Structure prediction request, 118 residues.
Amino acid sequence: QVQLVESGGGLVQAGGSLRLSCVVSGNIVSTLDMGWYRQAPGKQRELVVRSTRSGISTNYADFVKGRFTISRDISKNTVYLQMNSLKPEDTAVYYCNADRRWPPITAWGQGTQVTVAS
Prediction:
């Protein structure tokens, strides 16, 4: 079964950068649709970015365009989210997501906390 483990969250000052990692087990990352979502306390979970298998198509939420970048390291079976120019409103728990087309399955990581101080 597909399993995701996120890491890389932490406390950063506004304007700083963080790189989140999502290690994928149970499937080859290039065959998966991958995404990052986030959820602030008391708020709805929202899409940050989603990338189809092999990175053929990538869609970023408007509030992160030009600041965040998703990438994959196939040799490490890992997906990254590079976050630059962080803002206090980026503070949230960030979740890695994977969708497998066949056999179909959706997997979520446990989440990693990102806190941006103003």
